[in-house]
Amino acid sequence: MPELNGEDEPDPIGGGPRRRGRTIPPGVAVRSGRETLSAELALTIFRQMVRTRALEERSIKMSKSGEAYFWIGGPGEEATNVCLGLQVHKGQGPAYDYLHLHYRNAGVMLGMGMSMLDHVRQLGMRRTDPHSMGRNFVGHYCIPKWNVVPVTSVIEVQFAMAPGTALVQKRFGGEGITIVVGGEAGTAEGDFDSCLNWTTRPGNELPVLMLVTNNRFGISTDLRTVHVDRPVADRAVPYGIRAETVDGNDPIAVWHGIARGMKHCRELRRPFLLETMVSRMHGHSSSSGAMRDPAEADPLALFERKLLDDGAIDADGVTALKDDAKAEADAAVVEAMAEAQPTPADVRRFTYADSEVDAVYPGDYTGLPGRR
Ligand SMILES: Cc1ncc(C[n+]2csc(CCOP(=O)(O)OP(=O)(O)O)c2C)c(N)n1
Ligand SMILES: [Mg+2]
Question: Which partner from 41, 131, 189, 216 sits 20 to 30 angstroms from 305, CA to CA?
């Protein structure tokens, strides 16, 4: 198992740019409060944050240019998402981590090693989209070989599903955990409570890392109008679940928060709730215009300033990383848009799996992947 994800994948645009622009004097560490990261790790996180931002900005453009019709994503969540993606134990089956994600998690996937191209293929509705054959919303990933369970637009159902994979992992043994991600507004849904309940049955506690990304909004509803002025993480208190709230815009804080949560779940086989306070830099989605909200803090700009101040990188290094990321995103869009779209015959393909017990709708079976 690699120490970090992302770095073991072939570079999508050739070997050169991955290391370009790095200037790490030996022994430099980057600090936030009492916590530190090595400059090497901090730059790996920064590079993936830069790539994620470039991909999101190009994605927003696609939704405005007609290359795509709808955008939703995570500008402002890069620190949280990349730090999660880099630490996942990636693989297939119960020995590895399961991911039940939200619709803002491009940074998780890039951190795990997914190419920008596979994100753009879904957004651009191409038949080559490996997640949904070009038939689902952007950010609705599905990668069986990495235990990435299909993302659903119906919010919070992932919290009702997570105990299922965790139960299998607990029975199987080993250190695989289930990671479930959702927004703070969704925690008002019963599915969230089901997760708290099912992961804490005495003698049957489950290794689920619940990650709540708190951007203080559910579409247009301000959290302060629907939730008492307490951390959302307090929802875990009556269940005796260990919980923390960290600054999700600070990669050093969130890296260590996720590491503590993962260690707790892996070793004790019990749940952990981590709330990360994040920004929502372009509103909810393209439906509200996706304009940059100047009131929202930018985690990328904040981390860049810290890395420059601490001498982990210089200005030329930052420029090179940003140029490379933008070129990679642009190239991914050019490649994806030249690919075929699904055909009318594809619309209902793979909708239902074969089932001997489905006596009601046997005619709906449209074939399993690989049996076209
Ligand atoms: C069950 C359900 N109810 C309502 C919606 C409509 N809806 C889509 S996103 C959203 C807001 C979710 O807010 P939050 O959980 O904080 O996540 P965020 O979008 O802020 O990341 C709502 C209400 C939905 N998709 N599913
Ligand atoms: Mg929210």
Answer: 216
Taking the CA of 277 as reference, the closest ligand is 2
219 lines ligand 1 (CB under 6 A): yes
- CATH of region 32-282+295-339: 3.40.50.970
- Atom from ligand 1 closest to the CA of residue 218: 13
Q: Per-residue pLDDT for 211 more than 50?
A: yes
Q: Tell me how far apart the alpha carbons of residues 88 and 264 are, in angstroms, rounded to a whole number.
A: 14
Ligand nearest to the backbone CA of 156: 1
Q: Tokens 């079976």 map to which residue? A: 365
197 C-beta closer than 6 A to ligand 1: no
Label residue 349 by pLDDT band (50, 70, 90).
Answer: confident
Cα distance between residue 13 and residue 151, in whole Å: 27
Mean pLDDT across the chain: 91
143: β partners: 148
Residue recorded with tokens 């940059």:
292
For the entire predicted model, the pTM comes to: 0.92
Question: Cβ(183) to ligand 1 under 6 A?
Answer: yes
Cβ(156)–Cβ(186) under 8 Å? yes
Sign of the dihedral through C-alpha 206, 257, 161, 127: negative
CB burial class (10 A; 0-12, 13-18, 19+) of residue 222?
exposed
